[in-house]
Design brief:
- By secondary structure, the chain is an alpha/beta fold.
- It has three domains: 251 residues, Aminopeptidase, CATH 3.40.630.10; 63 residues, no CATH class; 93 residues, no CATH class.
- Helices cover 17% and strands 32% of the residues.
- It has seven helices and 27 strands.
- The strands form seven sheets. The protein has a seven-stranded mixed sheet with strand order 2-5-3-6-11-9-10, sandwiched between helices. It has a five-stranded mixed sheet with strand order 1-22-27-26-24, with no helix packed on it. A four-stranded mixed sheet has the order 15-19-18-17, with no helix packed on it.
- Helix 6 crosses helix 7.
- It is elongated and about 75 Å long.
């Protein structure tokens, strides 16, 4: 069966304007909702990549789960603990002039929703925690590979037996260690007894408001996919303890996690142009000449920023691609195009899709529309009605690193400069 991929935003997506974040709601809303957060500190990719994979790679079959993977997207983009100070120290008192005041209030409001009964906050910490000093990387001052609680119990709260619950999670984690030195421990910060820093944290804000809260730390010494592996084992155990049932779309092994993290990204820009597993640099991207650039994506860790010559597309801490624009007036003349794939019968394809072809494709001529197959010709002439095979397109014009995906653009023919209608991607598959 031929694979056609449409790019549709399926999550509750809040644009990455400064101070805004995404909330992905999975399952059916009820009065027992677990909230999982990541990215409050932008230099902890294990935490925010885990939360994001939870949102994208799990199906909740019973119960309710909220995921906020990108609480501090500006800091994630900058690979910074906090571009305006540590956001996880702003949940006690905060100046009205603090630039993150609004986002902190939005996070508080999310936690305080009556249906939220448990908060699980994902972080990366240094080294490996040990109750007694062993060496420089394994001692009481390290925060890697621990489950954190602020106090032993929270009376009258659902899941208020914090110590017992966290110990169950630690026990489960220690059944799946990749190396004995990765052993997890419980760390009770006894926050109310005078831990001045933890008093300001998101977790303790939840505790003060009668919500069970847990933090899970993975060691920064581990590669990101191994941190995610441990985080997800912990999250799954918290979900089970909360009675939330789920299906996972990948194998929970280091290899399975890595594969899931490396899956292709799909990005929709301006409702007209797509990126799919893009090269590090792309040129002549047709953007609107009105100066407005809309951005939509089904991945909460993808963001768009301006650079000197064009734009960057970010995925978490990484710049996925840099591209330079070419500006056109946009047209909505058509929303579909007729195409013959391989030797099949012509079929209609909605613009904004990726199609797969084994040997060839041919765009069926449409009056008033010019087809431009990027990498085939060098002058702006209509390239419909031509049976195109992969060897007819210059590989340097491919969209992707594997040199298998090519863009086909469509323009409304006018007496002056043609107007950009939209595009499809064609992937040559074996």
């Amino acid at each position: 069966m031929r694979k056609i991929i449409a790019f549709v935003a399926i999550f509750i997506f809040i644009s990455h304007a400064y101070g805004e974040f995404s909330v992905i709601k999975l399952g059916a809303d009820n009065n027992n909702t677990v909230l999982v957060t990541g990215g409050i500190q932008g230099d902890e990719p294990g935490g925010f990549m885990s939360a994001n994979l939870l949102a994208r790679g799990y199906e909740i079959t019973s119960g309710s789960l909220y995921v906020a993977p990108n609480l501090n997207m500006p800091s994630i983009i900058k690979k910074s603990r906090g571009v305006n100070g540590d956001m996880n120290r702003k949940f006690d008192t905060l100046s009205e002039k603090d630039p993150e005041k609004d986002v902190v209030e939005k996070i508080k409001a999310l936690v305080l929703q009556p249906n939220v009964t448990m908060l699980v906050n994902l972080h990366d910490g240094s080294g490996f925690y040990r109750p007694k000093y062993i060496n420089k990387m394994m001692n009481p001052n390290r925060w890697g590979n621990i489950a954190i609680i602020d106090q032993a119990t929270l009376p009258n709260a659902i899941y208020g037996d914090l110590e017992a619950t966290a110990n169950k999670v630690v026990k489960e984690l220690n059944k799946h260690l990749l190396d004995p030195k990765h052993k997890y421990h419980l760390r009770n910060t006894h926050t109310a007894k005078g831990d001045k820093e933890m008093l300001k944290s998101l977790s303790y804000f939840a505790i003060k408001n009668g919500k069970a809260a847990y933090a899970n730390e993975a060691s920064k010494t581990l590669p990101v996919h191994e941190r995610v592996y441990y985080h997800l084992i912990a999250v799954e155990e918290y979900l089970k303890l909360a009675g939330i049932e789920f299906k996972r779309k990948f194998e929970l092994t280091p290899q399975g996690v890595k594969k899931a993290l490396d899956e292709d990204l799909s990005v929709l820009v301006c409702g007209k142009f797509m990126f799919y597993s893009p090269k590090s640099r792309l040129g002549y991207i047709p953007l609107s000449n009105d100066g407005e650039l809309e951005f939509d994506c089904d991945n909460a860790l993808v963001a768009l920023t301006k650079n000197k010559d064009g734009y960057n597309i970010h995925y978490g801490n990484k710049i996925v691609t840099r591209f330079t624009p070419q500006f056109f007036e946009y047209s909505n003349l058509i929303n579909e195009i007729e195409i013959r794939i391989d030797e099949g019968e012509p079929e209609f394809v909605i613009l904004g899709q990726k199609i797969s072809a084994k040997t060839s494709f041919e765009i069926i001529k449409r009056d008033g529309v010019r087809t431009n197959i990027i990498g085939y010709g060098t002058i702006p002439v209509d390239e419909s009605g031509i049976k195109i095979s992969k060897d007819m397109i210059k590989s340097r014009f491919s969209m992707d690193k594997d040199e298998s995906i090519y863009r086909v653009e469509f323009y409304e023919e006018t007496d002056s400069k043609d107007k950009f209608i939209g595009m499809i991607l064609v992937e040559f598959v074996k």
